[in-house]
Amino acid sequence: MRKLCRCGQNMNLGFRLVIFENKFQVDRVPILECEECNYYEVLPSFKADVIDLLSQLKEQGESVRVYFTEMNELADVLYGLSSQAAKLDPSAFRVLLEQSCNERINLLLDIYGCAQKLGDTAWMNEIAVRLAPLSKFVKKGQSLSAK
Ligand SMILES: [Zn+2]
């Protein structure tokens, strides 16, 4: 996961508290940051999800603080690996990330099976929502830093 900053330096994976309109706080948003010039941007493949979450928060209207990693399972897996990101080269990190996503998918599928046995449709739906970003990422094989 490498991308060059506009100043020419490599940008690194990080997580940051992002505040919108002085009111809505979304913590642990995956970003790419440049140590050289302090520029940062939301990791491109999460931009749409961050915007979705923001519009949901705006609809609810209350000033709240949420963790993006609790709303997006792929971000959560990535957060768990963030200390490895700087140590590994991009292709090794990519392999690790895919492995971790597959492990999380298997875990969620187990839980889904339990929910199904109980006939708990609300729980099943919740797990399906959590699975979606993971399976999309694994199937598409897209780069996180691509738009
Ligand atoms: Zn820079």
Please give the number of β-strands. 5
Name every ligand kind in the structure: zinc ion
Q: What does the main sheet amount to?
A: 5 strands, mixed
> What proportion of the residues is helical, as a percent range?
40-55%
What is the SS-derived class?
alpha+beta
> Rounded to an integer, what's the Rg over CA atoms?
17 Å
The overall pLDDT average reads 91
Q: Please state roughly what percent of the residues sit in beta strands, choosing from under 5%, 5-15%, 15-25%, 25-35%, 35-45% or over 45%.
A: 15-25%
Number of helices: 6
Distance between the termini: 13 Å
Q: Which series of helices and strands comes N to C?
A: EEEEHEHHHHH
Assembly category: single chain
Integer tally of domains:
1
Q: What is the overall shape?
A: flat
pLDDT < 50 stretches: none
Organism: Paenibacillus vini
Protein name: YgiT-type zinc finger domain-containing protein
Give structural notes.
With 147 residues, this protein is α+β, with helices and mostly antiparallel strands. The model has no long low-confidence stretch (mean pLDDT 91). A hairpin with a 6-residue loop joins β3 and β4. The chain has one domain (3-140). It has helices at 47-60, 68-71, 73-80, 82-85, 90-118, 121-140; strands spanning 3-4, 10-20, 24-33, 40-42, 65-67. α5 (90-118) runs antiparallel to α6 (121-140). Strands 1, 2, 3, 4 and 5 form a five-stranded mixed beta sheet that branches. Zinc ion (ZN) is lined by residues 5, 7, 9, 34, 36-37, 39.
